[in-house]
Write a structure and sequence with these properties.
By secondary structure, this protein is mainly α. It contains seven helices and four strands; from the N terminus they run E-E-H-H-H-H-E-E-H-H-H. The protein has one domain. The strands form two sheets. The protein has a two-stranded antiparallel sheet. A two-stranded antiparallel sheet has the order 3-4. The radius of gyration is 19 Å and the shape is globular.
């Protein structure tokens, strides 16, 4: 959307710059918020877990991209079909990884180690998404939605995928929706929800928002009028909601 900035005569990608700043600000916020968590794992364990999530989530993105490519090739019967690989796929890979860890902790290795970190991580990750979504907005490499004549349609004249027509600024949609989710998570945290529930709320909220935002993108439909990302987000959101209801029901029985 904006021309690449220059520092000491060197052009720097908006995407890389904002991503780095988002990570640094999230670490600062996480360090402050860590002090507010009553029952918390060691700080080193918390930061190490989040760091591993970021790295493994990056590779999970490529795994999902491979599955997506194979799915479209099979359904469309087009072995040459190519998918767009961008920021939205990275979010999907990261959220999918968190979802898998929640399943692993709750059902395959139920000792609640991950849940003790869940409340802290849910709020920090949501804070990170609010900031990092703007990386694509500033860089303008094609993560926007389809053409729109709505008053808030934006022009992306710079970057690797410029557009001469106003389009849906989907990065702003993602950032604002997660801002509301962030406020809700903070309120729920203050009310002392059951350990691990905030992480499920994050999965439900981000799945719902991204599921809806995909409708204003030019993405090939795969099944039932939905694209691959919507099918994955739909599965994550529904099953996470069931897990949230399950944890709420268990808490009621205990009380």
């Amino acid at each position: 959307m904006f021309p690449a900035p220059e520092i000491l005569g060197i052009k720097i990608s908006w995407f890389e710059l904002i991503t780095v700043l988002s990570i640094l600000l999230s670490l600062v916020f996480g360090r402050w918020f860590y002090r507010q968590v009553p029952s918390k794992p060691p700080l080193a364990y918390s930061l190490l877990t989040i760091g591993i999530l970021l790295v493994v989530g990056y590779f999970a993105t490529y795994f999902l991209a491979f599955i997506e490519g194979q799915s479209y090739s099979f359904v469309l019967n087009d072995p040459t079909f190519e998918i767009k690989f961008g920021q939205s796929k990275k979010f999907l890979g990261f959220i999918f990884l968190i979802y898998c860890l929640v399943l692993f902790d709750n059902y395959l290795y139920p000792i609640n180690r991950f849940n003790t970190l869940g409340d802290f991580m849910a709020i920090v990750v949501c804070f990170f998404i609010i900031l990092e979504a703007n990386a694509c907005l500033f860089d303008g490499h094609g993560c926007y939605g389809r053409f729109t004549n709505l008053p808030w349609g934006m022009y992306f004249l710079h970057g690797s995928a410029p557009t001469l027509l106003p389009v849906h600024p989907t990065p702003i949609y993602i950032s604002l929706s997660h801002l509301f989710l962030f406020i809700f998570l903070l309120i729920a945290f203050k009310k002392h929800w059951i350990e691990g529930q905030l992480l499920l709320v994050l999965l439900i909220g981000t799945s719902l928002f991204n599921f809806l935002i995909e409708f204003v993108k030019d993405t090939q439909q795969l099944l039932l009028g939905l694209n691959f990302s919507q099918l994955v987000y739909g599965w994550i959101g529904i099953t996470s909601f069931i897990m949230l209801l399950t944890t709420t029901g268990l808490s009621s029985e205990r009380n």
